[in-house]
Design goal:
With 450 residues, this protein is an alpha/beta fold. The protein is 30% helix and 24% strand. A 12-stranded mixed sheet has the order 4-3-5-6-7-8-9-14-13-12-10-11. It starts with 15 loop residues before the first helix and ends in an 8-residue tail after the last strand. The site of zinc ion has 6 residues, from loops.
Length: 450
């Protein structure tokens, strides 16, 4: 069977045989790879050897796909706790450093960024998967593609190679300032762009303000969005499409796996996930009990073919469900529907923001009392947040100085500035309580019902 890196594009499929494999054969292939990767992880990654032994399970216990349920979970904390232990790549890594050709990292918004290593083969298969998604949304050799994603340490950066391997003309846009990006859109008339949904909307607004008509002055036919939920929220997707006169496709990636692990097809009904690379489980948020396909819970991924750092039962923290019924497009790989994050996390300009990070900053500032209130809201389809703080009575600074220094400290820690910092007098914020204080007010209307 045509496998990886041997694509033979056929009409609408990058790899027709793989993408339309009957479910039974797809699962047989998953089982074969699962057995191999679990054994490999046990033999080469010190963490898995220890955790499997402690749980009383062994690789040979895997006889069916369901047997994965006997194995222990890992999560972000496992990655953080084991990284740098024993070697630079840590105890989840299963290959020596000389076999690693690339690392990406998470944003580090919850603390130390976690490192995701790739072997040469992992990286090639990653890019083959990205080519599959680009092809799926209709990218062809005659397209001009602007990859407007950050390249530094971010796993979405190298995805542009998947577009190049497909034969499209690629423009490595990175994080160009918007004026420059608008120039690129006007001058080179690209047909496809990838950015975050909120930026796609903002850029459209900026274009209008600058006197462009995005529908006439540019030639953008398709917009790929990722990093925020917007691309899967019909009203947001439609608002972006209306400005640009282009079709919006939602992609979903994880810094721990691939820049895009899943992508919408032309039916926009969930995102096809690369089931030949990822075994998906859905589990109850609290108990960890495995739920039947179609039920909503936390998505748990097992990587089937990444050897540099296999992830066995990785709790993604994303809430969603998987639909494994055939899609109208003919692809047999299941579709995931993501509803939101498990934590209190919220996302501003594609940066993950956690209330705990804001608290950490507020509590470090000597001019503040440490009391704070976070307000999360939407403006122009974009998530924003403001922070209210109290000036310590000992402080000699003005309110303006305190607002500026707090804003800069927040930007330094989490990567984005709050929309505003409001400074109150000591004791003015009504957040003190003997019981659990309510310090986060979420005013967003685009809610995700779980
Ligand atoms: Zn489909």
């Amino acid at each position: 069977m045509a496998d990886y890196g041997t694509a033979n594009p056929d009409g609408k499929f990058w790899n027709k045989e793989l993408e339309t494999l009957p479910r039974e054969q797809l699962e047989a292939k998953q089982l074969e790879d699962l057995k191999e990767i679990v054994q490999f992880a046990y033999d080469h990654a010190p963490y898995y050897k220890r955790s499997f032994d402690e749980a009383g399970v062994k690789p040979s216990d895997i006889k069916t796909l369901k047997d994965i349920e006997k194995f222990p979970f890992i999560n972000k904390k496992t990655q953080r706790d084991t990284q740098g232990v024993g070697s630079f790549l840590g105890e989840l890594a299963a290959v020596p450093e000389e076999d690693v050709v690339f690392i990406s990292t998470s944003s580090g918004s919850t603390g130390v960024p976690t490192v995701s290593p790739f072997s040469k083969k992992d990286f090639d298969e990653f890019q083959d998967t990205e080519s599959r998604w680009f092809y799926q949304i209709g990218m062809r050799k005659n397209d001009r593609y602007v990859h407007a994603l950050n390249f530094s340490l971010y796993v979405g950066g190298p995805d542009v190679i998947g577009a190049q391997n497909l034969g499209a003309l690629c423009i490595w846009g990175g994080t160009l300032p918007s004026e420059r990006l608008l120039f690129v859109l006007k001058q080179y008339q690209p047909t496809i762009i990838w950015t975050s949904p909120s930026y796609a909307w903002q850029l459209g607004e900026k274009a209008l303000k600058a006197g462009y008509d995005p529908k006439k002055d540019f030639n953008i036919k398709k917009i790929i969005v990722a990093g925020e939920l917007g691309g899967s929220i019909d009203s947001t997707r439609k608002a972006i499409e209306d400005i640009w006169g282009a079709e919006v496709y939602d992609f979903y990636g994880l810094s721990d796996i691939f820049g895009a692990c899943a992508a919408q097809c032309e039916y926009h009904d969930g995102l096809h996930i690369a089931e030949n690379h990822i075994l998906v489980e859905t589990v109850d948020l609290k108990t960890g009990e495995v739920l039947p396909p179609g039920e909503t819970g936390e998505l748990v991924f097992t990587t089937l073919r990444k050897h540099a750092r296999p992830l066995i039962r990785f709790r993604t923290g994303d809430i969603g469900r998987i639909d494994q019924t055939p899609c109208k497009c003919g692809r047999t790989h299941g579709r995931i529907h993501i509803l939101g994050r498990k934590d209190d996390m919220f996302i501003v300009s594609a940066v993950n923001v956690f209330p705990s990070d804001i608290e950490a900053v507020i509590r470090e500032e000597k001019d503040l009392t440490g009391e704070y209130l976070i307000r999360i809201f939407e403006k122009d389809f974009t998530c924003k947040f403001s922070v209210e703080v109290e000036k310590a009575s000992s402080s000699t600074k003005t309110d303006e100085e305190i607002a500026a220094q707090t804003s800069a400290a927040l930007k330094g820690r989490i990567g984005v500035k709050p929309a505003s910092v409001i400074v109150h007098k000591d004791g003015e914020l009504n957040t003190r309580s003997e019981h659990k204080s309510k310090r986060v007010i979420d005013e967003r209307t685009l809610t995700y019902n779980i």
